[in-house]
Specification:
Elements (H helix, E strand, L loop, with lengths): L3 E6 L2 E6 L3 H14 L11 H9 L3 H12 E2 L2 E2 L1 E3 L15 H16 L19
Antiparallel strand pairs: 1-2, 2-5, 3-4
Length: 129
């Protein structure tokens, strides 16, 4: 079942819902294979997230963008003020904000991944590499 969320990129609010499970599985696979997954954890800076997204193959970025923003003919993420679907053209002179929005939508879709971290006796989460 989709979960609603709101995120901000470039001082603009966007609203959306999480993608279907099949799309999330593909997102997780791409994020893991490309090494992007480490930049999706809580506390990662906007700059780190954008830089990580710019370092993956353009085909992977395009796939993630589509998986996060569209499901069939349904727009999953829109600009909150006017319900305009997300597209690169909304980010003239601010491409970093488009990357940030893709990253924030990806974080929303994959946030349950971090529940795999188990607390140890000391109370800190496991950190196995």
């Amino acid at each position: 079942m989709a979960r609603s969320f709101t995120v901000e990129a470039g001082d603009v609010e966007f609203k959306g819902s999480t993608a279907p499970a099949k799309a999330q599985i593909e997102m997780l696979h791409i994020a893991g294979r490309t090494g992007l997954i480490v930049s999706l954890q809580e506390g990662a800076s906007d700059m780190a997230l954008v830089v990580a997204l710019t370092q993956i193959h353009p085909d992977d970025f395009t796939a993630l963008r589509k998986l996060c923003f569209v499901s069939g003919k349904e727009d999953l993420v829109v600009r909150a003020a006017d319900n305009v679907p997300v597209g690169e053209n909304l980010f003239q002179d601010a491409p970093q904000d488009f990357y940030l929005l893709v990253g924030r939508a990806l974080v929303e879709n994959l946030s349950p991944f971090w529940q795999l971290r188990k607390a140890t006796v000391e109370g800190k989460a496991e950190q196995s590499h």
